[in-house]
Amino acid sequence: MIRPMRPEDVEAVVAILQENKQMVDGVDYTQWSHPTLVAVHDGQVVGIIQALLGTPYAVMPEFSVARAFHGKQYGVRLLEHMETALRLAGIAAYAAYVSDTNDHAADLFERWGGTPTGHGRGYIRRLTQ
């Protein structure tokens, strides 16, 4: 099942991001202010996807599936649901950052029809200490 993220999902989402080495040190992952969906299997959160909405495109900063559930179509289902939400919001395209170590997500985006941008790598600049 795919559904909107709830406050009680934070602990499971953080664990998935940690497992996949997708967390940024010093960032508070207890607050989620943009459309965020989770994949649930037998009551357990097993995946997350988030989009930051903008015009003319959105950015997907978080997309992760628990390793035990890789290859079981949860990533595809998360993408399907998020793309539907983006289309309903009038978004024409989205950009997604995939780390150099996340071959699974890169393969999925390419199979899904994503085109590598050829524009550098992702960066983060901390505004608070």
Topology:
Elements: E1 2-4, H1 10-19, E2 36-41, E3 44-52, E4 57-65, H2 74-88, E5 93-96, H3 103-111
Parallel strand pairs: 4-5
Antiparallel strand pairs: 1-2, 2-3, 3-4
* Beta-strand content bin: 15-25%
Task: Give the class from helix and strand content and strand pairing.
Answer: alpha+beta
Please give the number of β-strands.
5
Please state how the strands of the largest beta sheet are arranged side by side.
Answer: 1-2-3-4-5
Annotation field: number of helices: 3
| End-to-end Cα distance | 38 Å
Rounded Rg:
14 Å
The helix fraction, in percent, is 25-40%
Care to give the gist of this entry?
The protein has helices at 10-19, 74-88, 103-111; strands spanning 2-4, 36-41, 44-52, 57-65, 93-96. The protein is an alpha+beta fold and 129 residues long.
Structure description:
The termini are far apart. The chain has helices at residues 10-19, 74-88, 103-111; strands at 2-4, 36-41, 44-52, 57-65, 93-96. The radius of gyration is 14 Å and the shape is globular. It is built from three helices and five strands; from the N terminus they run E-H-E-E-E-H-E-H. It has a five-stranded mixed beta sheet with strand order 1-2-3-4-5, sandwiched between helices.
